Amino acid sequence: MKKHLFSAFTMLFAVTLLSAQEVVFEEYDLDNGLHVILHQDNGAPVVTTSVMYHVGSKDEDPDKTGFAHFFEHLLFEGTKNIERGEWDQIVASNGGRHNANTFLDRTYYYEVFPSNSLEIGLWLESERLMHPIIGQVGVDTQKEVVQEEKRLRVDNSPYGAFFNEILKNLYTNHPYRWGVIGSFEHLASATLDDFKKFNQTYYVPNNAVLVVAGDFETAKTKKMIEDYFGPIPKGAEIQRPNVKEEPITKTKFAKYHDPNIQIPAILLAYRTPGQGQRDAYVINMISTYLSDGESSKLYKKLVDEKKMALQILSVPIDAEDYSSYIVGGLPVGDNSIQDIKKEIDEEILKLQMELISEKDYQKLQNKFENQFVNANSSVEGIANSLAENYMLKDDTNLINTEIDIYRSITREEIMEVAKKYLKVNQRLELEYLPEQKDAN
C-alpha cells in the first residue's frame, strides 16, 4: 500500500512540475524574413540572445566541405564596427559569456548577459549578420585554428575519428557523408570569393531564427530587434539539397585503424528517420533502454555482470533528413569485439521479440520526464530548444508538448520500431582498431 501511495505521489509531483514549467513564448517575422521568438522570464536578471542559422555541413559543396564549421569560427573575427580580437572583450566587459556550435543541419551562436546588457547581445548578433568582414587575414587565421582543432579532436584523440568514419560509410550519396569537420584540403584551397559566396548565401535573415529568452521588457525589446535587425536586406531563397539514400539491404562492413588507441571497439550503426518523425522518438527510447548510461541493459549486462566490456558506447545522432543510432563497446580481457557484437545482437533480438517489462517501461518514462525538465531549467536551454524546434522540427511549441510524444509511445511500439530499423542487414559494422605495427 505504501509503495502504491509513493508511486502515485511521485507521478502527481511530476505532472504538477511539468504543468508549472510550461514555456510561454511569442513568435513573429520581420519583413526581411527573420523569425523572432521571445520568451520572457523575469525570475532572474539574466537574458540569452541567440541566432540559429539553417546551415550545416549538409549544405556544403562536396568539393568545398568544412565551410559551415569554419564560419562558426570566422564570424568571431570582427565586423565593420568591431575590431579583430574585440568580440571576446566586449562580451566579458559586459559580464557575459558566449559560444557557438555547428552540426549537420544548423549553426548556432549565443550570448548570456546580465539583463541590463541585452542590447549589447542584440547589437553583436546584428553585426555578425549585417557587417561581417570576410577578409584574407581572418580567413588565414581561422584556417590555422580549425586545423589545430582537427588535430586535437580528431587526428590525435583516442577514438576521435569514429564519427566521421561512421558517416562516411553509412551514407553513399547524402551530404551527411562527410561530417561536420569536412576537409582541411578543401578549406586550404578555397578562395576568398568562395567564403564570401557562402556567407552571402546562408547568412541572411530569412535563413535564421533569433531567440531572446530571459529577463526583458517586451515592447522595448521588440523595438531594439526592429532597429538592429530590420534594416538587414532579405537574401535569396535557399536551394536545399534533396538527396535520398537508398535503403541499406545488405550489411555494410568497414575497418578503421586509429594510432591513438590500444583497445579495439565494435560500432554498429543504423540509419533511422529524421528527428522530427515519430519513429525517431521511439528510437531515442530504444537507445536509452539499451545503451545510454550505467542503468542501461547493455551496460549492466556487459560491464557490470559479465565483465566482458570496458565500456558501452551509445551515440544517437539526431538530424533533419536522417538520424542514426550507433551502439558498440570496448572488450576487456580475453573477449573480442565479435563477442561484444554477439551480446549486443542478443539484446536487440530480445527487444524485437518480447515486450520490455512494465518496470523498465516506467523507468524509461521517468528518465525522459527528467530530461525534459532539465532541458528547460535555464533560459539558455530554453533558447536552444525554441530555436531548434522551430528550425529543424517545424513546431516551436514542442518545447511544451514533446514530452507528450514520449508518454504516448507504447511497449508494443518500441518492439515494432526495433524490428523495423534494427536489422542486421540494414546496418554498418565498423571495426575500430589499433594501428597495425610493422613486423620489422
Automatic annotation (TrEMBL):
Domain Peptidase M16 N-terminal: 36-176
Annotated Pfam families: Peptidase_M16, Peptidase_M16_C
Ubl conjugation keyword on record: no
Peptidase M16 C-terminal domain residues: 190-367
Record keywords, A-Z: Hydrolase, Metalloprotease, Protease, Signal, Zinc
Protein origin, superkingdom: Bacteria
GO molecular function, one term: metal ion binding
Coiled coil: none
Signal peptide: 1-20
A GO BP annotation: proteolysis
Stated family: Belongs to the peptidase M16 family.
UniProt-recorded name of the protein: Peptidase M16 domain protein
Organism: Allomuricauda ruestringensis (strain DSM 13258 / CIP 107369 / LMG 19739 / B1)
Organism ancestry: Bacteria, Pseudomonadati, Bacteroidota, Flavobacteriia, Flavobacteriales
